[in-house]
Amino acid sequence: MNFILSFALGVFFVSSTALAANLSLVSGFYKKSEPDAGFGTSQVSLGARLGFGASQNKQWYGEARFGSVSYSGDGAPDGSTTISIGGGQYYFLRSFGSGVRSYLSWLVGYLNEESELNATSKTKSSGLFYGGNAGFRFDLSSSFFFDLNANLFESALMATDTTEVTAGGTSSKSETKRTELYMDSFGGVDDLTFSVGIEF
Hints:
By secondary structure, the protein is mainly beta. The chain has one domain: Porin. Helix content is 8%, strand content 68%. The chain has 1 helix and 9 strands. The protein has an 8-stranded antiparallel barrel. The longest helix is centred in the N-terminal third of the chain and has 15 residues, at 2-16.
């Protein structure tokens, strides 16, 4: 499954580059926690975004991301991996001086997340998701820009959650389908991402 998704991401970006107006490298802030008791946690996310079809106040875009969470310590679980691909649109709202613009954006795409919560439990979530963002674009020069983005929410449009529990040598699996037609999981400072891009 991961191979198929990786192949699809590669085809998407190769075929879309010719139509792009800009290309951004997207990264979530690196997070690391080492408590006195329990497991240590490290988290990082990477991705790329293509902007195209730009007008004065709007721009379409497509993006793909990969995320990983790992744990350290005796008996620590494997962690989780996330792959997503989707597209949406920027709405540039207001300019602050000559090089700073505020924006809102939306995104619809496919997400696949697999995680091991502990030695006996594994979960998988996959399906269509949608989300909303707000941020600022800083024009560093005529060719380069920097985006500071806050993820406001992410909700499931059509998703399936699967949980597999192993105990005493036997396994059981449960599956839940969900649709969330509302703004779920509002973010905060921990959901800030940044990107550095180049205009073509």
